[in-house]
Write a structure and sequence with these properties.
Layout lengths: L5 E4 L8 H16 L5 H6 L5 H9 L8 H19 L9 H12 L3 E5 L5 H7 L8 E3 L12 H10 L6 E5 L2 H9 L3 E5 L10 E3 L10
Parallel strand pairs: 1-2, 1-4, 2-3, 4-5, 5-6
The structure holds 6-O-phosphono-beta-D-glucopyranose (BG6) and magnesium ion.
Magnesium ion binds next to loops.
Amino acid sequence: MNHIRAIIFDLDGVICSTDHYHALAWKVLADRLGIPFDEQVGSKLRGISRMESLEIILGDRRGDFSESEKLAMAEEKNRIYQTYLSAMTPGDLSQEVRMTIHTLRQRGYLLAIGSSSKNTRQLLNQLGLGDFFDAVVDGTQITHGKPNPQVFQLAASKLGVAPEQAVVIEDSKTGVQAAYAGGFSAIGIRSENNDPDSDISIRKLSNLLDIL
Ligand code: BG6
Ligand code: MG
């Protein structure tokens, strides 16, 4: 990967384990509505915007609710998610991730975040990473969510690099699809319950140091 100058990281499930908090918050809502929700459903929501996630969770029952009821449900989920988020501290950034991103910076790569989440800024601040990345693009700045490549294209343009010069690090299928659609390379983080379907995959973020 000699041509790579920049690394664009997804946030939830890549830099930190907030993918679990998103799933937990959705589960509270799904339980209240009597809709089955397990880890498999939770994994399908990786990388997907808040409103699109709600539609997936409601499934066949999506027609039973008005738009304003759905908005209220999405806000309810976000309030629950924010209770987890607000308790996070720099201690929630693992030593492994911290070491990896600092080493990649020392190696001269430009580093960015490309996340669908509208809570990105708050999360980065809580983790003590508010000023760390060279560019941050999040759910508040895009009109098309993953698998549309807009989030990564905007990040690359903020960094001043072409898509061929950047690699996207993702834990979601939709994120990997977005990267390929935009002409980026992608490296997926694979786990027992989740395969993001990328050409190159790693088990943990520090494996990047063997590749980049
Ligand atoms: C993504 C998560 O990063 O952000 C999704 O993988 C989440 O699970 C999406 O739905 C939107 O997040 P938020 O914080 O704007 O509701
Ligand atoms: Mg993710």
